[in-house]
Amino acid sequence: MQFLPYKVFMFVFAALVSGAWTSDFARADSHSPSIRIVGLGDSLMAGYQIGRDEAFPAQLQKALQDIGVPATVENAGVSGDTSSGGLARLEWSLGTNPLNMVIVELGANDALRGIPVDVTKANLEKIVGALKAKNATVLLTGMLAPPNMGEDYGKQFDVIYPELAAKDDIALYPFFLDGVAAQPKLNLADGIHPTPEGVAVIVERILPKVVKTLVEAGHCGTVEAPVCDAAVFN
Predict the structure, then answer these.
(1) Is the pLDDT of residue 73 over 70?
(2) pTM value?
């Protein structure tokens, strides 16, 4: 009988005990819909302090299926994760099943901790490079640095996402929390994490970009999903 390496075992054990590990990739099987999407991110992806079926991946999956796009959206969000953490667990988070798209939502914790911008940028570049090597379509979601980090840090951090998207020719959703940030009624008491209603706003706003990206990547060409038409979302 083979045993997991000690470090791997402790990571799995800690994640299970804390409830931080929320990836659903192990649940995917041969009966899943045609389009497989993985949401790689931090607590904003994981659904901090809200129900699993209220988190971004679950709400996005429902929204896609409601408009006829046969997709599963798996939750590979880990609360507290930085870009370094996302990079370290990338292979494990993706699993081994065929993959169409990865929505990358990382960097908020880097900014909150004041991690050097070049470190965050390098990590995201490596994540995108690894995903492209797997022929996975990437939708990069941007983040904005909090004002308390200072103007210089903010200017350097905020351009990471558009610059990376342009350099690697990948889809970009400029600000993941668009329409929700600084809206008290759409956030928990901490003023940072969205409520289920806040997540619904995020999903509503990002949905056209998700579908258009799927269409442009050719992932809707072999399934009966009439709404997978780029013209609908131009």
Answers:
(1) yes
(2) 0.83
